[in-house]
Amino acid sequence: MLSECAKRLLWILVWIAAVIAHPFVRLANLRRPKSLPRIRNPLLLERATTLAHKIRTQQVTSEEVMRAFIARTKEVQPQLNCVVDERYEEALQEAQQVDKFIRSGAKSVEQMEMETPFLGVPFSVKESIGVQGLSNTSGQKLRTKKIAAQDARTVSLVRAAGGIPFVVTNTPELCMCYETDNNNTGRTNNPYDLRRSPGGSSGGEAALLASAGSVVGLASDVGGSARLPAAFTGIFGHKPSPGFVSNEGHCPSSSDPNWDRFFSVALMGRYAEDLAPTLRVMAGENAAALNLQQKVDLKGMRVCYVEDDGAVFTRSLDPEVRSALRKAVNHLEKSCGVKAEKLCIEELKDIFEIASTILLKMNAVECMFQVEPGSKEWKSVTWEWVRYFACMSDYTFPPLLYGMLKRIADKVSEEDFREMVSCNQRIKNIFKVINSEQTNLQVHHEFSCLIISE
């Protein structure tokens, strides 16, 4: 691991860069923020589970619901730039078929609820996840547009549950950034303030959901790619635990055995109530092991939270984030009868460096430097940087930075890497002790963390 001196030097460099950037950011924010068109159709404000209930009980048609979300998506797209490709006509035809099936009375309401819990409900999908017939470039500027030949496993499962995909949404190039911008479809804006970012890499999905252009969507997450955009746009994002949800059909991917321990197809939604039913569908045959239908009693639980990880590489908590964290803790104490405890975990100060190095050391992660897909052999990283500074590169900065950092990580000695892996395991063990009795809820953000256990 880096010495304390090297870490301090890097912190100073980052601080200088922030000071230089600050006045330019302030100037950019002098523009008055524009507002999105107001939501007029009440169907857009319903939960996915509520819409499904109303559709199968014939209180509303799937076609009406689909037309409402398509109209809203078309309305906000010019300002948000969150949609990459669409299948509006096909989605409407599928919605009409759903309505015809329900009117036929072939199955009872109870059967439909059990077998197809999202029958007739529209859902959106991050463009890095395959939807048959739609763009699947993962934000890359390709000579020939890549179209998904088949649905990803999670998409096929949600379809089987009655859901109807209608758009795929924007992502940074190869999902390698906390902003959503690429040279293919451009930048996505935050629906609450068009001057600002919705985060990334699932920023297109977050922007569409937050603007009521969709109600539930499929995303992906390795280091916050679903959770951070959700936090930036006031919706909900969940990264499932490793091994429960299939990652088949996502680009980028990797043949490295550690990949599925870090990466997961994720879910996002406007309403927390929709997360568990959606995850139950996405998990397929693994759903029973998740115990998602188990009732949770918060009373008497222990709430552990962290306000500062002590790391040099991360900024301290923003006062507003700290205030929100404490409000959440106070609410759980007073309203739910939990016991709150602030934790100071010394080992967390190195977690950013450890996690980054472990990720970067993975082999065969899809990127533009590979000689061919899945290959461990790379093209010249230096030459691509030369092309970038000469304005001749087709690639954006984040994937290029990945190439450089990957080269640096590969030079980490085996001894140092073993020390990082050992420290990572110690941190895991600490959390296992904290959660030793039973963990029922875990809420975390880049700069703060809540751990709740009995």
Automatic annotation (TrEMBL):
Domain of life: Eukaryota
GO cellular component: endomembrane system
Coiled coil (UniProt feature): none
Alphabetized Gene3D superfamilies for the sequence: Amidase signature (AS) domain
Pfam family, one: Amidase
Residue ranges annotated for the Amidase domain, each copy included: 64-426
The protein's name in its UniProt record: Amidase domain-containing protein
Annotated source species: Cloeon dipterum
